[in-house]
Amino acid sequence: MTPSIRQDRLTSEFLALAAASRESLDERLSADLITEKLHALGFCVQEDDAGRALGGNAGNLYGTLSGTRPGPPLLFSAHMDTVAPGNGKHPLLHEDGTVTSDGTTVLGADDCAGLAEILEGIRSVREAGIAHRDIEVLFPVAEEIYIRGSGIFDYSRLRSKEAYVLDMSGAVGSAAVRAPSLISFRVTVTGRASHAGFAPENGIHAIRAAAEAIARIPQGRVDADTTSNIGTVSGGTAKNIVPEQCVCTGEVRSFSHKKALGRIEEIRARFREAAAQYGAAVQMETQEILRSYEVPQEAAVVRRFRDVCGRLGLPGTLRSTFGGSDNHNFLKAGISGIVLSCGMERVHSTQEHISVQELVRGAALVAGLITCDD
Length: 374
Known about the structure:
Structural class: alpha+beta
Shape: elongated
Strand content: 25-35%
Radius of gyration: 24 Å
Helix content: 25-40%
Order of helices and strands: HHEHEEEEHEHEEEEHEEEEHEEHEHEEH
């Protein structure tokens, strides 16, 4: 028996989820709606205290559903928050089957598409009475602010060792098996203030020292694996005062964690050299936001994805992404996961859109994964 994806129901559910989803740390409406839907599917649902810990109003949702066939459980995940402007959304279904916002906000397909596809995929299998393995779901909060919700989840609750994270742009049928490290940094250059007209020679120009360092630092795509960027520069207090302080922030991304660390040390060295040249002091703080990973193509989680795609007539393309997702935290917790495209396009903009047909394909893929013979 083949599960039947109900397009009308899936569309209505996506529209409801998109309307309810909110910006990071304001996920209460989504959490309540999803909890109701999971209970209706027979899930045992728990909500953790991530909201309290992060200063939000909802926690990560974790659900379990017993299967009817042997085999280890599979984890499916999509995040509940969206980027700004993401409150007060009004999703619109157009005659050609495209769904957009009204143009004043994002649509929220990132990541309501993943949520809706997971729910409908599971529902279709249950309705058809098809045997399936045990299922776990994890719907985190605060993904859009550096995967903070999944970063504090208690992974001892999970039994799954394999995960599918529905959180990538593009047509359904591709998956990311490689993603980068991301290290952010903040550099403070401290000089000495002085009157710029009467005694400029008594000052140490912090902005000039910082500018010297920035000029020496390669930026953009510095090699095939790595990017580097200084995104903000601020300093000074008045136009007639030699600036005492300049603060620069930026990031390094690389598919090689070793390269990312090396690039950070090069940036540190350039700032130290420039500060010493002008007699300034420098302090640099770094934070590892993401740790790079690459899931082998022969891994079971990848083979299963490609097998199901083949049966559904989907391409089964494997690729890299330079973005972050909750899958970074899953890999750190020992769960082998890949990130699936779920049909959304132009995310993080008011031109975000998705087609109903892509939602249907995504739900069918989920149904295939939970009923697949390994």
